[in-house]
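Can anyone check this?
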Amino acid sequence: MSDDALLRRMLLGFAVLAALGTLAELGLERHYDGMDQRIPWVIAGAVAALGALLAIRPGPLAIRAARVLAVIALIGSAIGVFKHVEENHGAGALDYRYTETWESRSAADQWFKAATKQVGPAPVLAPGALALAALLLAAATVRHPAVRSSPEG
């Protein structure tokens, strides 16, 4: 096995592990209330499945699908970070340390506290696990021989 093939398999393995780890974390956190909480399940499952498919049977269509999925996952991850910050911001007034002063704080201070998880329960960087899995999946498709050898590649 060439160094490129070994590296590609390692990237795919890490992508699948990151996606499966994300699925496990979503389950442990009971992250399934409402449609917006189910979206990361779909994305993480798709990354895991597509990563396994690329490891077993790579082809131009699967590679293209992996690249599109990576873009979707990156967008979904960014939205997830925002949603978590927004959730924390909404919980700011309920925090015992800020109940009396939350409304009088500047918007910048409120959003900073929400983004740095000084208030609220949502882990702000947790959606980044999907971004990591997506980037690993996309990296495994760079200069893939299945694309170079295809007539349309």
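Reply from J.R.: I decoded it. DSSP finds six helices and no strands in the chain.
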